[in-house]
Design a protein that fits this description.
248 residues, alpha/beta, Glycerol-3-phosphate (1)-acyltransferase, 1-acyl-sn-glycerol-3-phosphate acyltransferase, Plipid/glycerol_acylTrfase, acyltransferase activity
Length: 248
């Protein structure tokens, strides 16, 4: 690792910390003002502004969005899903042009500052493998969709190790069928080079999120969860080779 990369990496870490501290009081105020709102739309917008600011100030990263958002996504909530490449994925997805609440693993809510920001941004915690936590998460997601906002989930449940697309879990597709919300698949490429799993250093890369056609669920029932899950995984898997050839 050369000295320029080391200095740039250190700058990026410091810049991320400064952005967290700078946004924290604004997000705390927004959270307090909108505490009873099941959409958490305004706190979520501040969370996405934070993500975009960090991305803009990080000299190693460049982001691109491809594809068109569904024209009715702000009026008709969707369950948005994406493959999970790295910790840089949320910064890339912050550039998507619509509001949504995110489901995130509970561990992210625990550290000081970052955990407070996650809470103030209206994200929904999930403790994987805990039935009570899963039920609470699903109930809050249904409440949010009923109130008119989309939900964002990573159905792999964890970041891919070597670019392999992992098995999708049922939760996002169960939620979509329960609420009759269309599933909106997003294919991500390039973020793995930005923050490789288990690495403490950032990498220089250009990443892309490609919005794919929505999959309707209005005609589906509980017994169709597996079919919907596999269809959505196939849609993302089919898009990844071309996307990775262009973005790494």
């Amino acid at each position: 690792m050369d000295i320029r990369h080391t200095v740039t990496g250190l700058y990026s870490h410091l810049e991320f910390g400064a952005c967290l501290v700078g946004f924290l009081p604004i997000m705390a105020a927004s959270h307090a003002l909108h505490r009873g709102d099941p959409t958490q739309r305004e706190p979520g917008r501040w969370m996405r502004r934070l993500g975009r600011t960090v991305g803009q100030l990080t000299p190693l990263w460049t982001f691109t969005i491809e594809g068109e958002a569904p024209p009715d996504i702000e009026a008709k909530p969707h369950v948005v899903i994406a493959n999970h490449e790295s910790q840089a994925d949320p910064f890339l997805l912050s550039w998507l042009p619509w509001d949504m609440r995110w489901v995130a693993k509970e561990e992210l809510f625990k550290p000081p500052v970052l955990g407070w920001v996650m809470t103030f941004g209206g994200d929904i915690p999930l403790r994987r493998g805990d039935g009570t936590s899963v039920r609470a998460m699903m109930a809050e997601c249904e409440r949010a969709i009923d109130a008119g906002i989309s939900i964002m989930m990573f159905p792999e449940g964890t970041r891919a190790q070597n670019g392999e697309l992992l098995r999708f879990r049922d939760g996002a597709f169960d939620l979509a069928i329960r609420t009759r919300a269309p599933v909106l698949p997003i294919a991500i490429a390039g973020t793995r080079q930005m923050r490789p799993k288990h690495s403490r250093w950032l990498g220089k890369a250009h990443a892309c999120a490609k919005i794919l056609p929505a999959v309707p669920t209005a005609h589906l029932h509980a017994e169709d969860i597996g079919t919907l899950r596999d269809r959505c995984r196939d849609i993302i898997a089919a898009e990844l080779p071309d996307l990775r050839a262009r973005y790494g």
